[in-house]
Write the structure tokens for this entry.
Amino acid sequence: GIGWRPTDWFMPLRIKQGILAHNSAKEAGALLAKALTQGRLTPRVTSSASSRGSKTVRVVAVNEDTDLSKLFGPQAAFSADMQDFKGKAGSILRVPSEGEVILAVGVGPKISNQDTNSVAATIRQAVANIRNEVVRSFPKAQSVVFDRSLTGGNAQYGRVAAEAAAIAALSAGKESPAESMNWVVEGVPETSVRHGSMVAMGVNSARLLGMAPANLLFPESWVEAAIAVGEEQRLRVEVLTDTDMRNLGMGLISAVGQGSARPPRMVKIEYAHPDVSPDEAPVTFVGKGVTFDTGGISLKPPPGMDEMRMDMMGAAAVFGAMRTLAATQCKVRAVGILALAENMPSDRAYRPGDVFTARNGTSVEILNTDAEGRLCLADALCWAADCKPCLTVDLATLTGAIGIALGSMHAGMFTTSDKLAQDLTIAANSSGESLWRMPLDDAYDECIKTPAADLKNIGGRTQGVSTSAAFLKSFAPGTEWAHLDIASVAWGSGPHSKLSGAGPSGYGVRLLEQLAAKRQV
């Protein structure tokens, strides 16, 4: 009922479900690595068209109240459709022409009358609308050319357009005609187009991981894929096995993973620009990577449980962001930590009433095994503290309650740092991945106290969103820290899926890239 099948992404690799059922970690990891490094992740986007003709779709951006006869000649005055076309944002009209197809796309008020973020949002929407129209009406087109009218020749807007095109062209289901087309953003530097394409590569990497069935993507296979991608992009990858984690006192993620035949893993991915001092404090990103979440002993209801293969989109966003930082050569030191586990019921599974100890010595009483993501993140945040970061941001599909609070319009942001909140808000607005700051005051700390341990892993139904963040606060590094609950924006068909379509949105990659860019040295 959601319009796509996860295996469709992997059909080009000739993977069938019957084969997937018996993959070893190395086999599955190799298949994931191949999917993550093949050309399909980055549809061809350039700054100049190699040829023009009947298989070219040229896109002209039209502002409100523009005189179409000046743009398209006197024939515009004799077309009833063109007389009715007013340049309203989102509207599309085919312009009579010989040779190449010309589409006018409405973009609303003039750029000079809009702020930068509004223009970027308009460009993203225009690209998404054109993708839909081209796939529907011109599936055999070879090239889609956005002329200079879309960006005004602005390098920043050129990057946004290229980024949007490379995301929009990649279908969430079966291969779309848009994927084989050449997408051209004219009138801007090739460097801007290339940068936008590399950001899209990170977003599409996260989307790919979200598409993977849980019998292909599990902690061990993700590790194998991360190592292969790290070697290709010169990223340093460190892996903790379940034994390593127990030896380091990471009792919480170990508890979550002990019920599964697929043991948990913790992955650290490090990137450093060659011009940045090794003594520079890194920006650190931490992601929840529960590759399948049944709820454990506190079992989830069956309807919709198949979507719990996407309970790892926080870690996917971190993985995609680290790939993008390396590809764009962002002048920072950055660390990405992936907390990977499966949450399964079995005779070995952790139970309500159990007590476990985190790496920092904090004891936790388990009252609900379906509140597992915060347990995985807790040990990951403790490990992140060892990196002595200048800031830490964790991302997780943590609570269903965030969707009740904010719908699918915003992710929830929790932080006690006003400076980091401001930086994240700026990054969110410029990337088009919106955030809304939620309360995180000391009153919520009282809700997670228990006589059986230092903390309990749930804080009550009515304040569940903020108590989950209050729980994580107890494990966060002493420097700037924020928690982003992305459960309502990580997949689906809401505003954050305009470019990506149904399925995983890749939310968070663009936001993290913008945040890291702001902290460049």
Summary: DSSP finds 16 helices and 17 strands in the chain.
